[in-house]
Amino acid sequence: EVQLAESGGGLVQPGGSLRLSCAASGFSLSDYWMGWVRQAPGKGLEWVATIKPDGSEKYYVDSVKGRFTISRDNAMHSVYLQMNSLRAEDTAVYYCARVAGNGWVGCWGQGTLVTVSS
Amino acid sequence: DIVMTQSPDSLAVSLGERATINCKSSQSVLYSSDSKNYLAWYQQKPGQPPNLLIYWASTRESGVPDRFSGSGSGTDFTLTISSLQAEDVAVYYCQQYYSVPPWTFGQGTKVEIK
After folding, report:
1. Are the Cβ atoms of A61 and B55 closer than 8 angstroms?
2. In whole angstroms, what is the distance from residue A21 CA to residue A26 CA?
3. How far is B109 from chain A (nearest CA, A)?
4. B74's torsion region: left (phi>0), alpha (psi -120 to 50) or beta?
5. Which residues in chain B are contacts of A35 at CB distance < 8 A?
6. Residue B15: other Cβ atoms inside 10 A
7. I need a labelling partner for B83 at 20 to 30 A (CA). Which of A25, A61, A77, B36 fits?
8. Are A4 and A77 in contact (CB under 8 A)?
9. Is the Cβ pair A35, B50 closer than 8 Å?
């Protein structure tokens, strides 16, 4: 069974850092683009970061460029999101996403909540 | 960036009736080389992650009931629920994957029972 399991969310003060992890199982991680999509409380979906199967290309939404870094370890079946200089507006549920075909999300994790507050 | 705009923001439909959601992109998402529309639709129920319904604008994901259908081309797209069921109460999102990532979603349309 294909599964994505996020971890690492929590409460952090503005300016702080968190590292999210996504453990993939049931498929070969090295075959897929992966990404992180977030959803602020009561709001819509926002694609945050995307990474090529071999990690050679990474893309970010403008609002997180220079602060967030996506990475992956295919041997460890994991994808990561390092979040620095966190702001209140980064508060959201962060979903790990497996990209299918040319860019739709065929599989989602259950999400992990990040709350940025003093 | 390609901006996706959905309409309406919410709608209430009687059980068994048709629900129609529109999605408009700020530029065409039809790729001329393969004649495909780079657009997907998702359903999100409260407390759950989104669930893929349709990709390539009109291809239904495996396991999705055939009352869900997608149509449109270029910049204007529609998701239709032909006969609304109680379990279809959710928020629906369109997403374009035509551009270089990050791809973009519409703001969502909430579907309720009238």
Report:
1. no
2. 17
3. 10
4. left
5. 101-102
6. 11
7. B36
8. no
9. no
